[in-house]
Specification:
The chain has 76 residues and is an alpha+beta fold. The protein has one helix and six strands.
Length: 76
C-alpha cells in the first residue's frame, strides 16, 4: 500500500503527519491506498503496512500505520 502523498523518506512522512495532527492550516490529510487491479481504493479504517516512495522508484522505507476516517493517525 502507498500513502496518498509520495514521501521520499519515512522521516518526512512522520513529520508531515505530526504537523497535520497539530492542525496546521493548508495541509492535505494523508490517507493510504492499494494500487493495481485488486485495489481497495482509499482505505477508511484499520492497521496496514505501507511502503515508499511510490513505484517505479525503489522502495526505501516501510511503516505500519493506523488509519481512522480515511486519515493516517499513527506511524510505527
Amino acid at each position: 500500500m502507498y500513502t496518498t502523498i509520495n514521501f521520499k523518506t519515512k522521516k518526512a512522512f512522520k513529520e508531515y503527519v505530526a504537523r497535520e495532527q497539530k492542525s496546521f492550516p493548508g495541509l492535505e490529510s494523508v490517507g493510504i491506498y492499494q494500487p493495481g487491479p485488486f485495489n481497495k481504493g482509499i482505505v477508511e479504517s484499520g492497521t496496514y503496512a505501507v511502503e515508499g516512495p511510490h513505484y517505479p522508484e525503489p522502495h526505501k522505507w516501510y511503516a505500519s500505520v493506523k488509519v481512522e476516517n480515511f486519515k493516517v493517525t499513527s506511524i510505527k
